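We treat protein structure as text, and this decision shapes the records that our systems exchange. This encoding replaces a full spatial description with a residue-level series of whole-number codes. Below, we set out a record of this kind in full and without editing:
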Amino acid sequence: MTLRDIARLLHAEVVGDDGLEIRRVAKIEEAGEGDITFVANPKYARFLASTRASAVIVGKGLVAPADAATVPALVRVADPYASFLFVLQAFNPPQPPLPPGIHPTAVIDPSAQLGRDVRVGAHVVMGARCKVGDGSMIAHNVVLGSDVEIGAGSLLYPSVAVREGCRIGARVIIQPGAIIGSDGFGFAPLPDGSYNKIPQLGIVVIEDDVEIGANCTIDRATMGETRIGKGTKLDNLIQVAHNVVIGEHTVIAAQTGISGSTKIGSHCMVGGQVGFTGHIEIADGTRIGAQSGVHRSVTEKNTTIFGYPAIPQRQALRMMGTLPQLPDLLASVRELKGEIEQLKKES
């Protein structure tokens, strides 16, 4: 593919030889002749002087270093990162994880309904009355309980389990090992100190265009629904407890744990290893720093919180800034205490 072809795909301006043959997409520090790479942040413009790439995708306003002896051909676009991803996909088109058809080892209940062009891998099990939409792919060792519904164009990777009654929308991606609809953690204490299991009678609803990371667990509701909103993205190893509701287009990083009946708004951003207590509400647009402990509701939209317990970010950073000073402060207090005691003795 020539640089001219790439520029046409991106609706971009080329500064340099647009007839260059581009063979590969590479990171800027590893790129060589025939490669194309990108610079999204202007502070990395210095790499333009040292990269061996034939072409670099850059922002329209990026300026090459003045002392650069040579600069590769520049492809100027409005959004370098998005354009780079587009070129990356053009050079590496995704391959379907499954061949067409249904593997002969799949066990599918006669009452299940499969749409057009559904692909089913080896050792898949589908229970009674399952419905799988057109063009969906159910990879090896997936288990779908009875009455499960999968929307059109969804992809369930190997060893996913979706328990009975749960509903998954269109174009949903569920990575390997995720468990959808496991029992919520509900136990009632008895007078003798033992625990009685509370029946978990609800379901999980995952709306369209959601992605669920590997080994996530999303518990079914005690009654009603645990719900993941449209376009939300969950990283790996996330625990979503019973009756949790997550709004639309929220992103949550790995190892976050969300306790039961918590409601997280739309367009929120949650860092890794955040813990939420139960029965709280998080306003739309909230940003939560990694390893925060969220112990109460956030009612104001578009705020940033951080810390354990989580508080407004500026306040948390000021508090953290004082921690290194505590040993000196303690020494000063002890010294002042000694001086006071001495003055008392002399008076």
About this structure: Residues 151 and 170 are 4 Å apart (CA to CA). The chain is about 15% helix and 25% strand. The chain has a mean pLDDT of 94.
